[in-house]
Amino acid sequence: MEDQQKRIHPVVDVKSPPPRPPPVMASMLSRGSATSDKGMLNMAPRPPSMVTVPLVPQGHATSEKVLPRRRQRSCCCKFICWTISLLFVILILIAATAGILYLIFRPKLPKYSINNLNISDLRLNYDLSLYAKFNVKITANNPNEKIGIYYEKGSRLSVWYTNSMLCEGSLPKFYQGHQNITKLDLALTGQNEYGSTIMAALQEQQQTGRIPLELKVVAPVAIKLGSLKLRKMKILGQCNLVVDSLSANNLISIKASNCRFGLKL
């Protein structure tokens, strides 16, 4: 028992470094580690091959690509600016010319009035169409001191009852001088296929003593400024009339008249 107690068992010190292997073992371990390192190196992925791209100098690219585009844009901008400026100058010249002409000639619209309306014929035909013939006396007044008016071909006057045209005619071709008053005696004729319906409505309206009629005028004219004759324009007019009767060959009284005229370029 004493012998067993006197024996001392080796105690491993954890903090102490591990014992070095023998030289033979160290050489074997170094060889194995070398081979393992070589294997690991062989197994590692190879980096991708690098391709060198020649760089173009920045100044060279600008001179070949950027500068032509800038030049094209600058040319377009200059062209647009010149065009807008030219149009602006033309508009100013037109406005100035129109202002000068207005101050010199003082243009005024001609005035028109209906003096008399007479019905020569108003009857139903055998096919129940309505035949009408009106005589209209119109006074045309040109109040301008320095402007003459050429009445050209293609004018049209028409008399309407509600939405039905009763008759139509045209103005003669003539020239109206400065501050001139011209009286026109015009004959208007027409035929409407819905005669029976229109005649019945006119007879019913005649009992009230107030029959509404509408006179429409479209007259192509040319204005003369001094010795200069301008291009054709149109005088558009509309007169709302109220007459007491539409009996043929009777004196018709115009109870109300409202006319509006304008100039269309």
From TrEMBL:
It is found in: Membrane. Pfam families: LEA_2. The chain crosses the membrane at residues 79-105. Residues 1-30 are annotated as: Disordered. It comes from the Eukaryota. Keywords: Membrane, Transmembrane, Transmembrane helix. GO terms for cellular component: plasma membrane. This is Late embryogenesis abundant protein LEA-2 subgroup domain-containing protein. It is a single-pass membrane protein. Residues 138-221 form the Late embryogenesis abundant protein LEA-2 subgroup domain. One of its GO terms (biological process) is defense response to other organism. Residues 1-12 have a biased composition (Basic and acidic residues).
